[in-house]
Specification:
single chain; 2 helices; 68% helix
Length: 56
């Protein structure tokens, strides 16, 4: 079974790093908003998801 938690961490860390490096300019605002909202949504799902009993 794929290790989704590890994949989540890798992807979110990369997206967060990209956001930090992306200049805060009006031309980048829409892309920054999309990435930021996706990170928040993924984080919320990750934090509220109950542990999968098959992983124990």
């Amino acid at each position: 079974m794929p290790d989704y938690k590890t994949m989540y961490h890798i992807l979110c860390a990369a997206a967060s790093e990209a956001l930090d490096k992306l200049p805060d300019e009006p031309a980048n605002a829409a892309g920054r908003d999309v990435l930021q909202k996706a990170l928040y949504e993924a984080e919320e799902l990750y934090l509220t998801e109950e542990d999968d009993p098959s992983e124990k």
